[in-house]
Amino acid sequence: MRKVFLIIVINIFYTPLFAQQITYSQPQDGQLTRSLSFEIIGKVANNYLVYKNIRTKNLISVYDNDMKLVNEVELKNMPDKTLNVDFVAFPEYAWLVYQYQRRNTVYCMAMKLNGEGKLLSDPIELDTSSINFFADNKIYSTIKSEDKNKIMIYKIQKKSDVFNFTTLLFDNNMDLIHKTKIESDFEYRKNVFSDFFVTNTGDFVFTRGNRSNSRDYIQNLSIITKTSLEDTFRQKQLDLHDRNLDEVKLKVDNINKHYIINSFYYTNKRGNADGLYTAVINEINNDLVSENFAEFGESIRAAAKSGRSNKTAFNDFFIRNIVLKKDGGFLMTAEDFSTQSRSNTWNRYDYLYGYPSFSTNYYNYYSPYSNGYYGNRYNNYNPVRYLYNNIVILSMDSTGKIEWS
Fold it and tell me: Which residues pair with 233 in a beta bridge?
């Protein structure tokens, strides 16, 4: 009877466990070298494609679903030395966008690949630029819309205190839709830009912040947009109500046709992080939909602090991601991050603004692994510890008010 009872109990409370399976590729002989750089293209057709550069070789490694190497295709049409490589992957093909320099000319090219890493087209010339000897030659950047139906190649060349923007908008077949050249004023140590985005309708958008000097918070903020077929920038100044911002995160909400801006705000210069600033902009007419300064209360400060006082709890937090919700709200994740080294005291101002206000190959200067414009911030003789502590998740409604944390 006891055996029967035990069998019944086991069947009632039995729950099958599903373990996560991690599949990885084996290292390849001859490729374990410091000169290897790679970029994951993604899943194309039934394979996973990875771009590799080893000295003067450009390769596409093709892996199956079990991450076993199926083939390796050498891209012989690419020059030995490429300056930058970007990819836009689709279910059945991928575009490879690259640039190289020959004498005083930088070429921006594209090639179409299939799921086997083989070329579906000859190299296509997208644009060329003449540069002088001392100029930065990594001048082209590639961005794509959320639905990948719009691909934009842009370059920004600085001349005196003027930035010359060139944008080339393509469809997903790399057919040119519109090319624009725009001049914009720029103050080297006072202006800082956010990431650049292209919307599903082909609009170009970013933010520009102004500060009194290179080691100060942002005191004025504008959102700058250009519709797909326009040849001018539209600029909208945002009222910060005498508050200061540091790292500005821009997000495009293609469903609700909104631009969402987030940043930690400070009431006093060199003060503590007081809360989260959120502004929602209408994509169609650039009107301000909502604006909110969500102050951090004592309960969230007490939960977030890592050996600090409640007042300084958010001083080392950085916004990592914004996840949109269908109702126009969003989830924001932020991480407590700092560094330690023998010769360098951690300083948020140096970390945020220790780089030039803008570089055309700007990807993420807030990353501790970013080489930025001046090369690695630390060298092998000065070991650095990267400290990652608490993570905060905030659920915000469509007006930027905190729902829960």
Answer: none
Which of 40-44, 133-137, 216-220 shows the lowest mean pLDDT across its residues? 133-137
Tokens of 205: 């958008």
Q: How far apart are the first and last CA of the chain?
A: 51
- Phi and psi (nearest 5°) for 302? -65, -35
Distances from the Cα of 28 to the Cαs of 69, 113, 148, in angstroms? 9, 23, 33
Is residue 12 scored above 60 in pLDDT? no
Q: What's residue 387's pLDDT?
A: 87
DSSP 276-337: EEEEEEETTT--EEEEEEEE--HHHHHHH-SSS-STTTTTTEEEEEEEE-TTS-EEEEEEEE
For 238-272, what is each residue's pLDDT tens digit? Answer: 999 999 998 899 999 999 999 999 999 999 887 89
Q: Which of 133, 129, 94 is nearest to 108 (CA)?
A: 129
Q: What is the C-alpha to C-alpha distance for residues 207 and 280, in angstroms, rounded to an integer? A: 13
- pLDDT tens-digit series, residues 136-183: 778 899 999 999 999 999 998 887 778 899 999 999 999 999 999 999
Query: Residue 90: what residue type?
Result: F
Count of residues in the chain: 405
Indicate whether 361 pLDDT > 80. no
User: What mean pLDDT comes out for the span 210-229?
Assistant: 87
241: phi then psi, degrees, rounded to nearest 5: 55, 45
What tokens were used for 30? 């001859």
Kindly report the pTM of this predicted structure: 0.84
**Predicted confidence band of residue 103 (pLDDT cuts 50, 70, 90):** confident
Residue 357: Cβ within 10 Å count? 19
What secondary structure does DSSP assign to 64-85, as a single string? -TT--EEEEEE-TTS-SS-SEE
Q: What is the DSSP string of 350-373?
A: HHHHSS-S--TT-S-TTSTT--TT
What order of strands is seen across the sheet that includes strand 317-324?
Answer: 317-324, 330-341, 384-396, 402-404
Spatial neighbors of 187 by CB under 8 A, at least 6 apart, are 161, 210, 357
Q: What would the two tokens of residue 219 be?
A: 């005191």
**How far apart are the C-alpha atoms of 186 and 159, rounded to whole Å?**
10
What is residue 194's DSSP assignment? Answer: -
Which residues on adjacent β-strands are paired with residue 295?
275
Residue with tokens 């100060």: 216
